[in-house]
Write a sequence for this structure.
């Protein structure tokens, strides 16, 4: 119930941002469309911890900050490599363990890997993610597993 | 104060444009499909983030800035999904990545 409430608040807040028109008629349309989305989501049974993960909001702030910093570093590193005349890359496929228990946690981990320039997750099977890494350093960083640990910690927060 | 915001926005937009150009150059220079995706990643993340934050500074504290924040969030959520979908499609249709031999490592 509280999850449905937070979803409807979120939907309406997004509607308010998109719309920019605040006359009674249009606000009523906004409420109606949000109610429709809520009804459909309820019937599809996706208002659950996976479809609307309210428990991750608090932890995702610190994870987001850490990920932003990691993104900036790997962006700079990759930009340097692309601009350097000798193109110092050493592409390889590696398999890393995703130690998250839920599908949602594994998806967050795989998406973080892909979002980081230098590594793209290609496949995920039985808790192992197949990653294409552009450099030995990017591969080693994943194998060291700091990102994996942080996503697991994020997943376990409540 | 306005001048500082103006120049900060100008600097962010230039950085973003530069990074997008580097991403494009990377797509041209890198050897195969999988490694080119990494270069596209520069454009996806820091390049677009700089451009959008620069535009946020231009629009000030307004509804447009809120919309730009939403665009950034959606971009960060959707671009890895698209990249992964393309990479997996390539893998499943049998495209093998070019990799270095073990002794070449250093």
């Amino acid at each position: 119930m509280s999850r449905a409430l937070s979803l409807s608040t979120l939907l309406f807040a997004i509607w308010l941002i998109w719309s920019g028109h605040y006359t009674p008629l249009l606000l009523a349309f906004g409420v109606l469309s949000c109610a429709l989305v809520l009804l459909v989501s309820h019937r599809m049974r996706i208002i659950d911890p996976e479809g609307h993960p309210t428990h991750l909001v608090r932890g995702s702030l610190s994870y987001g900050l850490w990920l932003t910093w990691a993104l900036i570093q790997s962006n700079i590193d990759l930009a340097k490599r692309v601009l350097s005349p000798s193109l110092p890359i050493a592409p390889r496929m590696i398999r890393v363990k995703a130690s998250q228990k839920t599908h949602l946690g594994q998806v967050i981990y795989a998406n973080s890997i892909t979002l980081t320039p230098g590594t793209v997750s290609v496949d995920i099977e039985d808790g192992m993610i197949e990653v294409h890494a552009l450099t030995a350093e990017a591969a080693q960083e994943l194998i060291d597993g700091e990102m994996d640990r942080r996503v697991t910690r994020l997943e376990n927060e409540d | 104060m306005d001048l500082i915001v103006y120049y900060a926005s100008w600097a962010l937009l230039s950085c973003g444009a530069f990074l997008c150009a580097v991403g494009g150059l990377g797509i041209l220079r890198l050897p195969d499909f999988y490694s080119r995706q990494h270069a596209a990643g520069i454009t996806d993340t820091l390049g677009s983030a700089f451009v959008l934050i620069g535009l946020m500074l231009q629009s000030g504290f307004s509804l447009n800035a809120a919309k730009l924040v939403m665009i950034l969030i959606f971009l960060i959520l959707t671009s890895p999904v698209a990249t992964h979908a393309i990479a997996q499609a390539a893998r499943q249709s049998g495209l093998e990545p070019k990799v270095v031999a073990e002794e070449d490592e250093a």
